[in-house]
Amino acid sequence: MDDFFLYASLFLCLIMMISLYRAVFGPTVLDRLIGVNAIGSKTTALLILIGIIYHRVEMFVDIALAYALLNFIAVLAASRYFQKIKGLYDEPQESLKRK
Amino acid sequence: MTDLTGDSQKPDDAAYLVDELENTSHKKSISSIIVTFFILMAIWVLLSGKFDTFHITLGIISSAIIAFFFSDLLFRNLILGRLPRVWFRFIVYIPWLIYQIFLANIHVLYLVFHPRMLELIDPKIIEFRSKLKKEMSILTFANSITLTPGTITVSATVLGKFAVHAIDETSGRALPGEMEKRVERIFED
Amino acid sequence: MSVIIIIFLATGLVFFAGGAIGIIRFPDFYSRLHPAGKLDTAGLFMTMIALALYTIYEFNVDNLITALKIILIVVFVFLTSPVATHAIVDAGVRAGLKPWTKEKEKEDNK
């Protein structure tokens, strides 16, 4: 059973790598925000898996709860902040075409 | 303010909005403070996990302070007698919502793993007008739409105008439909 | 019991994988939100149910409180995930991003 949890968390890390592509290379700022949000929600599951692997769930569940809260607030604040800046959202291909 | 009333079609909409704004002034009802206090206390006991006198006293003090100052954030115009029935119907609504979420998730999963996905999807923004009047029911309806994959609420106003981004034909066709009726039945709107 | 846990956890991982691949494959920002915001929520729901079941496998009060905390995370994510998704959509609409449609794609190809 412990082995299964170990492989599950490794698989979760692999999935987070895929989401990281969108967070790094995303054409617009909001695409990056989506990538960060996806990584955050996977981290919440990963933290509890780590807790089960180390047999300390009662400690890691608090960290996971705080991380879920923090992830939500971070996404909310970032999306409120970035909506005020104009011209930031033009996709690179389109701006190249205009020139 | 002028923006919202200018959008509305019928004149009673504007009157309704003014009514709503006047009702939500800064008066605090004692019942909403008590209900907020018990919710906060339950979360405190769950999070601390200790049942001795010291921790319970700390919880009671901090919950009371927060409930006194911020009770109007959670409940406005609370009518205590109707609360148990509304919550019972809300709890009955949740399993149906989870079933719908599950069905729709499998549909989106099929779309994601389909090799010719770009031919299958057809994103468009649908606009419709809902019959719901109360803030709470509009909030529940908008969140339910967003949780059901394939549709995202782009905007929802107090007057019941919804704009929904749907990813393909089948997800958009079901709106407003049965979900609105169920939400209407919960809050007796 | 462990079979049920493994089935739930594997379903959750499949949902997570679908969300990640959907973020990569979909054509524009609005349609990327569909897998990102909600397949993740469903995946978290499945995974958390499996882990809560594993936690209360040896039943006592401490384990029950831990399992209830895990369920609290699920309730919290179900409340906040639509709000976060809506905040991102709202930012996109206010910035004037146009949604990707089939007609626009055909015009671009001509």
Summarize the structure in words.
The complex is a heterotrimer of chains A (99), B (189) and C (110). With 99 residues, chain A is mostly helical. Chain A has helices at 2-25, 29-53, 57-82, 92-98. Chain A has one domain (2-85). Chain A is flat, with a radius of gyration of 17 Å. By secondary structure, chain B is mainly α. In chain B, 66% of the residues lie in helices and 10% in strands. Chain C is mainly alpha-helical and 110 residues long. The radius of gyration of chain C is 19 Å and the shape is elongated. In chain C, α2 runs antiparallel to α3 (61-95). The chains are: A mainly alpha (99), B mainly alpha (189), C mainly alpha (110). Chains in contact: A-C, B-C.
In short:
Chain B has 189 residues and is mainly alpha-helical. Chain B has a domain at 81-187.
Topology:
The complex is a heterotrimer of chains A (99), B (189) and C (110).
Chain A: H1 2-25, H2 29-53, H3 57-82, H4 92-98
Helix pairs in contact in A: 1-2, 2-3
Chain B: H1 2-7, H2 11-23, H3 30-48, H4 53-74, H5 83-113, H6 117-120, E1 124-129, H7 135-147, E2 151-156, E3 161-166, H8 169-173, H9 177-187
Antiparallel strand pairs in B: 1-3, 2-3
Helix pairs in contact in B: 3-4, 5-9, 7-9
Chain C: H1 2-25, H2 29-55, H3 61-95, H4 102-109
Helix pairs in contact in C: 1-2, 2-3
Task: Provide the descriptors you would attach to this structure in a database record.
heterotrimer; A: 99 residues; mainly alpha; disordered C terminus; B: 189 residues; 9 helices; 3 strands; 66% helix; elongated; disordered N terminus
> What overall form of chain A do the CA principal axes indicate?
flat
Helix % of chain A is: over 70%
The largest sheet of chain C is: none
Gyration radius from CA atoms of chain A, angstroms:
17 Å
Classify the oligomer. heterotrimer
**Average residue pLDDT of chain A:** 81
Residue windows where pLDDT falls under 50 for at least 5 positions of chain C: none
The number of domains of chain C: 1
**Largest interface, by Cβ-Cβ below 8 angstroms: which chains and how many residues each?**
A-C, 44 and 48 residues
Number of helical regions of chain C: 4
Rounded to an integer in angstroms, the radius of gyration calculated over CA atoms of chain C is 19 Å
- Protein structure class of chain C: mainly alpha
Average pLDDT of chain C works out at 83
Low-confidence stretches of chain A: 92-99
Largest sheet of chain A: none
Q: What is the tally of helical segments of chain A?
A: 4
User: Order of helices and strands of chain A, N to C?
Assistant: HHHH
- Number of DSSP E strands of chain A: 0
